[in-house]
UniProtKB/TrEMBL annotation:
It comes from the Bacteria. The lineage of its organism: Bacteria, Pseudomonadati, Pseudomonadota, Betaproteobacteria, Burkholderiales. Pfam families: DUF2818. This is DUF2818 domain-containing protein. The chain crosses the membrane at residues 41-62, 74-95. Keywords: Membrane, Transmembrane, Transmembrane helix.
Amino acid sequence: MDQSVAVWLVLALAVFAANLPYFNERLLLVGPRQAPKAAWWRLLELVLMAVLTFAIGSLLEARIGRRHSQGWEFYAAAACLFITLGFPGFVWRYLRRGRG
């Protein structure tokens, strides 16, 4: 797999994963359906999806070549980017459609 394809794949996965908690009413994406899912469930799902996305990105990086060690700054910036990518789902869930 080419490096640029891997980068675009991780970015597309991040956009999908960051918005998925807002569009799905199931607990942890596979559990029972909760009509008004609590905001803390969505936050937990967002954190789990971020960890999953970072892990897939790390695996793709290791598959392409040598994996570079990253400091806390990288993970803080990546988490902020992940939250920003989830903004359309947040707007759709809480600002456009309302709470109920």
